Fold this sequence. Notes:
The protein is α/β, with parallel strands linked by helices.
Amino acid sequence: MSRWPKEVSAPALRSPLPTLASTTGSSSRLLSSGGSFPGPVWLVGAGPGDPELLTLRAWRCLQQAEVVLFDRLLDPRLLAEVPVETERCYVGKAPGQPGIGQEAIHRLLIDRARRGLRVVRLKGGDPYVFGRGGEEGAALDAAGIPWQVVPGLSSALAVPALAGIPLTHRGVAGNFTVVTAHRAGQAGATQTTDWDAIARLDTVVVLMGVSALPWVVSRLLRHRHPETPAAMIERGTLPGERRLITDLGHLLQDAALGGIAAPAILVVGDVVRFAATSTSTASVDWLPTPGLWKQLPGRCA
């Protein structure tokens, strides 16, 4: 007997599912290709990268998937959890390179769901944190496709934590914000983020900020002291992870010297003082500014 009805319950879906008359043999899928009912689709967060940080619900969805649409930065080991007969569709986008458009992804999700297939849209981090999960959910709603979000561990939280950086700390930081620097400072780009307000918050986490780093640093320095601790974590939780611990005034110089490349997360604020020096999850812990570590005491015990 298939465990499918127990693993992902129908009431949690955004639209009703048909009653399963049988869950054995070839009828164990919710619907056959010629079925009368669509879907379902799961918008699944794959976590920050390391497959060990995948949630149990996400793993169960991958085990049951008949189609998986996956992004560029996912660890290939995640696809090893998918049945060999499952259709795999790469829908990633690389910066500055042509790729499949968002509307095309919507059409692909709807097409496969209307065939009665179980579809997983696999995204890095959390689907609702700069993952366009809301857009895809709206498209599925408009098409009458049953769907469900499976939250994932966002890199904005997990990567700093594994580097020993608490985003909040009593007496040090009572708030934090997560912001994307995608298209920040680009000519003609609509700027909806109040960077002046963000710079005043205790802890600032910047995603997708490598290419826009000079612009981001200049905006933060309007309201932050140059000696404000800063960290850049490259390829967080993945093989080859590197950590740069410096301050805001030296960040551009040190990131250039270290060759920091995307994907990387920037953390700015006094909580960076707690950054662990352990290299248990990083190939390099790079502290390039002479004497800086002495300015940043408080290693987590």
